[in-house]
Design brief:
GO terms for molecular function: DNA-binding transcription factor activity; sequence-specific DNA binding. The chain has about 280 residues and is of the alpha+beta class. The protein folds into two domains: about 1-145, Jelly Rolls (Sandwich); about 175-280, Arc Repressor Mutant, subunit A (Orthogonal Bundle). It is about 45% helix and about 20% strand. The chain has helices at about 110-115, 130-145, 150-175, 180-190, 200-205, 210-220, 225-245, 250-255, 260-270, 275-280; strands spanning about 1-5, 15, 30-40, 45, 50-60, 60-65, 70-75, 75-80, 85-90, 95-105, 125. Helix 2 packs antiparallel against helix 3, helix 4 crosses helix 5 and helix 8 (about 250-255) crosses helix 9.
């Protein structure tokens, strides 16, 4: 069920993915996206949806009703909504509510649910200079052109947002008992991801048995420390591909791979695109 009043201003953007049926193998597939400048009578009520939704408030204030509670969506608020839960959102003042939004699919399944569809639910409050807002806007811009290459880039951008939010979640949700463990693991991975480290090295740093470390870390994040290490390496590789002219061999070494073929396989498996092609598209 869907009912709404699309009371938005002329400068609002709304794009749908023209390659939807051909791109379902990517980690994240953006199905539609936009940036709305919503007037006071704007609202959407939805029950039963096919896609995850992400909304980020750029300015103004919105109101979200979700899981029988109301939430104020102020500047910097980010929410990720479960498609199976009824949801309602609307402008909450006489001023324009400007927000960026995405509807998307994730191939991560239950792991994604564990990591980002938080229980109990609450909006994520991002700092003013957080790069997530810029990445979301870039996804909207990319979707304007119906190119499969842009779908691959959008998947990689959304994967980067996913990584940033996981890191925030680890810091925020760690309990006093495992706080020092999770912080120590993150710090160790962030300092040594470019070295040939193993789960044994990480468990030694945390002063925990390997099996208990995996349990504690996965309880918080939904992923193992080693899975986080691989994701962080690829996250750093994307930044280097965009910001440097270093060769693929050099980048693979800089992010902790012993050879470029292993790096290329991991990158393509994660993003469905080779590092070279990713670099070429991002430079256009």
């Amino acid at each position: 069920m869907l009912n709404y009043k699309l009371d938005i201003q002329k400068q609002s953007l709304w794009y749908t993915n023209q390659n939807y049926d051909d791109m379902k193998s990517v980690p994240f597939l953006v199905v539609e996206a936009g940036e709305f400048f919503a007037n006071p009578t704007f609202y959407t009520n939805r029950a039963g949806h096919s896609f995850f939704s992400m909304m980020y408030t750029v300015s103004g204030v919105g109101k979200l009703t979700y899981q029988n509670r109301e939430y104020s969506l102020k500047k910097g608020s980010l929410v990720i909504l479960n498609p199976q839960i009824p949801q309602s959102y609307a402008s909450a003042s006489s001023k324009t509510w400007q927000f960026t939004w995405l509807n998307f699919l994730s191939s991560y399944g239950d792991g994604f649910n564990k990591q980002l569809l938080e229980e109990p639910f609450r909006p994520i409050e991002l700092e003013a200079d957080n790069p997530v807002a810029k990445d979301l806007k870039q996804i909207v811009v990319n979707l304007e052109k119906p190119l499969k290459e842009n779908d691959l880039i959008n998947s990689a951008l959304l994967d980067g947002i996913y990584m940033k939010l996981i890191s925030r979640k680890i810091h925020r949700e760690a309990t006093p008992v495992n706080d020092s463990y999770s912080d120590r693991v993150l710090d160790f991975i962030h300092r040594h991801y470019n070295e040939d480290i193993s789960i044994d090295d990480i468990s030694q740093e945390a002063n925990l048995s390997k099996f208990y470390l995996i349990k504690v870390f996965k309880d918080i994040t939904g992923v193992t420390p080693y899975e986080y290490l691989i994701s962080y390496r690829l996250f750093q590789a994307k930044k280097l591909l965009k910001s440097t002219d270093d060769s693929i061999d050099a980048i693979s070494e800089r992010v902790g791979y012993n050879n470029s073929s292993g790096f290329i396989r991991a990158f393509k498996k994660r993003f469905n695109i080779t590092p070279d092609k990713y670099r070429n598209i991002r430079s256009q």
